[in-house]
Structure prediction request, 351 residues.
Amino acid sequence: MSMEQVAEKAAAEAVILAIETSCDETSAAVVKGGKEILSNIVSSQIDIHERFGGVVPEIASRKHVETITVIIEQALQAAGIGFEDIDAIAVTEGPGLVGALLVGIVAAKSLAMALDIPLIGTHHIAGHIYANELVENIDYPSLALVVSGGHTELVLLEGEGRFRIIGRTRDDAVGEAYDKVARALQLPYPGGPHIDRLAAEAEQEHVLPRAWLEPDSYDFSFSGLKSAVLAAINQHRMKGLELDATALARGFQSSVIEVLTTKALRAAREHGARQLLLCGGVAANRGLREALASQCAAAGLPLLIPPHSLCTDNAAMIGAAAHLKLKRGEFSELTLRGDPGLQLEQWSVEA
Ligand code: KG4
Ligand code: ZN
Prediction:
């Protein structure tokens, strides 16, 4: 075997312990060869933040501190391995809440130092995208539609681990818009699943505007749509009319889906993408999945959507993305710090 083949074989067997604490999920996972999930433990704080209607950063950090050690132990136990079997530690470096990121980073650095193994600071969105690789092989060039509570991006994968953002939201992220609209309709946090359900139940549609922006733009904007929903709710209240929340949910969801799917398919066509990858928490949206499935089928474009447990925040996806760096021997220094503004393109593998 050549040196490259030896390195490749070693990478295919490499066991990564991955840690994710960027927002309100504390998670640890063991991933082998960047593809095989040996364990993926996720502890959600949703019930704690629910009463505040959103994530409270201070509380999130404190909960991460309380749970991280136990979650790491559970991940190893569920994988049936010990600390001595780990080849590298991966951790979400950013973007995310700075205090929350720090908890995972401190844990990861301590382990890397104690075990004397490499540390891999990992981009959270690269994780969401590479969750797909835990299910199927990604073919390049590929186009990812990233839709979560904090992000809405169209990312072109020119090659393995090479990211180029071709469109992004100019204001609210799509999940954020869902949560704000749900709040205005007095639905619980997180609101996305509730709006999705109401939209499916609706018999009428309250037609709302679509934000296409400039004709050639792949950017998004959801704040105008959100304001249109709030205005409709206020008008009903002022006139003392009963509000059909299902019709409004359907109208909001239709607008979001039409813009997302139209831009994603146009971008895939223009860039010769071989696949469309859907990822992030909003990938759970039934309406969006159905619309993309039928449009991709009509266009002959393979669509990849990870299972729900890999769409929401989890550490296995961080392990999958970190493997890109492990394979190439690109490791982080033990001086690694959380970077809430970490840029995806800059996290690309070295050319
Ligand atoms: O990726 P994620 O778990 O966390 C972030 O990194 O942001 O995404 C959470 C977001 C929330 O805004 C939530 O309302 C939204 O995903 N979400 C949905 C659905 N399920 C979760 N949005 C629309 N429809 C759904 N079925
Ligand atoms: Zn996320």
